[in-house]
Model the fold of this input.
Amino acid sequence: MEYDSIPLHEEETGEFVRLNREYWKQVNGCRSLPEIKIEGENNFAFYRGEQADFVFLEVKNRDHGQTFDDAELVWDYLFSGVRRDPAGGQPDCGPSILPRKGDAWAIAAAAGCDRAYVHNRLVDMSGPAFIHRSLKYHGLNGGAIVRGEYLMTPVSFVAHVLEAELATSHGGLAAELKLKDGRVVQFARGNVGCVVDNRVRAMYCEAVFRGGELYVPIQWIFQRLFDYHASMCDHVLYITDHPAELSKHMAALIRDDILGASPR
Done:
């Protein structure tokens, strides 16, 4: 459960969760990266093991205690595939009632990481993602206040995921994507406006030029242009084609175990 904690070691709960996961990965012989599946508030990581598979499950917005369907989830995704050997040998860990497969379409990216997990495979980016804080100035008598935090990724990465044609101009300060469905999307440094088929659309925040490339708010692109779902927790962003709420320990798992970097 996302808000469960270790008695007397509340501040170290995340490390306990990580070490518990590492223990079972070692015992079960899990050598490869997991597949991630998030359904609503249920966050799954499926590890393939030489001895047995390991299923990591975290439920968002819950504290100590099981959910009403916890036992059924454990049976459906794990124990329904286990068969005892009558001769006393190693049990057979076959297919479970519900397949231990990650989301078929999903992107996971994190601030400070120059790789992303796209459809359960690692993809390199031309530069690390970062958090951009959107400021509001109006009515603050010259002051400013943060009204939103958004993960920014290189526009070339967005083009790769969408299998879109990318054209840049003005030394990389402007970019144009031609999507597979024929739509043309244009971005420019410092501009919160995005032009889609010659019509202006306001993004969550402005495009930013960094490291010689234009960065754009990938969450807005998939939510507004494709009606996908996005959830961010501790500067880790998860985008998929169905409702999904990323939990904090799953965010740490994605950032540290899969993408291999700490947040910046």
